[in-house]
Write a structure and sequence with these properties.
By secondary structure, the protein is an all-alpha fold. The chain is built from five helices and no strands.
């Protein structure tokens, strides 16, 4: 498409240049009144070096001097031909422009449709993945909660069992301690009675001895 447009533009430029040459050839005075100096100055002002400007001026002057003189009929024929060719070029360019515009619009709609479809597919995929992730997380959370509850119940049961065992052991130790304390108390009381009995015997013996001593002293007196 770009090549056809460039070819059309080149054809139009060529036609315009040929028309200018033909129009110059139809006016014999143009070759006689061509201002070479002004032409050179114009080219130099446009940035062309002096040597190239002078060469181009000489070539244009020679071409003007070498053209044939045409009739008004030739001029009208040339103008008609140029106008016809210009209309054809314009029609071709307009047709190609409309075709290009239609093609671009079609391609744009296709790209838009494709992008919309891909966007919906991506949204659907992401929504599905998000639901799967959410479901997986909920399942894992439920499993973790169940596991923690089970472990907590096991730990609680174990602690209760150990606590009951410790309480039973403590009660057994208390009963043993009470029994031992009762036995000790009994032994102490028995020992105290024995000591008391021994003290009583000793006191009685000492009292009898004292009485004997007193009686003996009284007899001696």
């Amino acid at each position: 498409m770009a090549r056809r447009q460039a070819a059309g533009a080149a054809s139009a430029a060529k036609i315009k240049w040929q028309g200018a040459e033909r129009a110059a050839s139809l006016n014999p005075m143009s070759a006689l009144t061509f201002d070479t100096l002004q032409f050179v100055k114009t080219l130099e002002t446009a940035g062309v070096c002096a040597q190239h400007a002078e060469a181009m001026a000489r070539a244009v002057r020679d071409s003007h001097m070498a053209v044939d003189v045409a009739t008004k009929a030739d001029l009208r024929e040339t103008q008609t031909l140029l106008r016809s060719e210009l209309r054809e070029v314009e029609t071709t360019l307009r047709t190609e422009l409309r075709e290009s515009e239609a093609k671009l619009r079609t391609e744009l709609r296709e790209v838009e449709t494709k992008l919309s479809t891909e966007l919906r597919e991506v949204e659907t995929k992401f929504s599905t993945e998000l639901r799967e992730v959410a479901t997986s997380l909920r399942t894992e959370l439920h499993e973790a909660t169940t596991s923690l509850r089970t472990e907590l119940h096991e730990v609680t049961t174990s602690l209760k069992t150990e606590l009951k065992a410790d309480l039973l052991t403590l009660k057994a130790d208390l009963l043993t301690l009470r029994s031992e304390l009762h036995e000790t108390q009994t032994v102490v009381q028995s020992s105290l009675r024995e000591v008391e009995l021994r003290m009583t015997v000793k006191l009685g013996t000492m009292l009898v001895a004292t009485v004997g001593v007193v009686v003996t002293l009284l007899k001696l007196l």
